[in-house]
């Protein structure tokens, strides 16, 4: 594992999730089995999504740990493993983590909040947030990005996947699990820059026949000291 230059890793004390996060976790607990069934093979029909995940894997350039930050039932963590990464998953929903552990017993999955990760500073060689921060209110997103930056080693990549607002402002919508938000890709990229990331690349994917919204992807790198 790499450490930030000139600093000592600190393991934060785990904090209780916010009331909003607790409600989101309960919402996903309630739909966990059905969600896992729908998500298990979703990547098979998404070549562009697989391409940017492959690009992320190449950008890690290390054998160190990579976390899926908000892993749900674990299918994406398993895909990262299949790309050759030392991947593990963290999710706020205990029901999702139970399914992930049952489905992929060879991988590590932990219950935890991506608002306050129980990880030392700078110990991840990569992070993937695959639609995991979409339920955070706009004012909370900078703190999420700052937390992702804290746990990533300098130079480590971060991949954000989200629903894009197609030229409009940040907009709330009726996600099936809990209220969620669509973001302009430039606005989210600017917040990531403020949190200490540099942009490596981006991808916008138009919705498929069974999808409502354009999908946004930002490939970022934690700034060097």
TrEMBL record:
GO molecular function, one term: methyltransferase activity
InterPro entries in the cross-refs: Methyltransf_25, Methyltransf_Superfamily, SAM-dependent_MTases_sf
Keyword DNA-binding attributed: no
Keyword Chaperone: no
Keyword line: Methyltransferase, Transferase
GO biological process: methylation
Sequence segments annotated as region (Disordered): 1-22
Pfam families xrefs: Methyltransf_25
Residue span, Methyltransferase domain: 66-155
PANTHER family: METHYLTRANSFERASE, N6-ADENOSINE-METHYLTRANSFERASE TMT1A
Protein name (record): Class I SAM-dependent methyltransferase
Protein species of origin: Streptomyces boncukensis
């Amino acid at each position: 594992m790499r450490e930030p230059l000139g600093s000592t890793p600190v393991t934060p004390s785990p904090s209780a999730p916010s009331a909003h996060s607790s409600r989101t976790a309960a919402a996903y607990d309630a739909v966990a089995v059905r969600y896992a069934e729908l998500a298990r093979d979703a990547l098979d029909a998404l070549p562009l999504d697989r391409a940017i995940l492959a690009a992320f894997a190449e950008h890690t350039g290390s054998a160190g740990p990579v976390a899926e930050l908000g892993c749900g039932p674990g299918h994406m963590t398993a895909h990262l493993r299949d790309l050759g990464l030392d991947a593990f998953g963290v999710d706020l929903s205990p029901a999702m983590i139970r399914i992930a552990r049952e489905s992929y017993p060879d991988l590590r999955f932990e219950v935890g909040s991506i608002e306050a990760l129980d990880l030392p500073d700078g110990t991840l060689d990569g992070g993937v947030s695959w639609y995991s921060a979409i339920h955070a209110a706009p004012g909370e997103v900078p703190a999420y990005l700052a937390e992702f930056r804290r746990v990533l080693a300098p130079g480590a990549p971060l991949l954000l996947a989200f629903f894009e607002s197609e030229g409009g402002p940040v907009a709330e919508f009726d996600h099936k699990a809990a209220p969620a938000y669509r973001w302009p890709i430039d606005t989210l990229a600017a917040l990531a820059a403020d949190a200490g990331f540099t942009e490596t690349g981006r991808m916008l994917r138009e919705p498929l026949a069974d999808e409502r919204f354009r999908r946004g992807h930002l490939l970022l790198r934690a700034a060097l000291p």
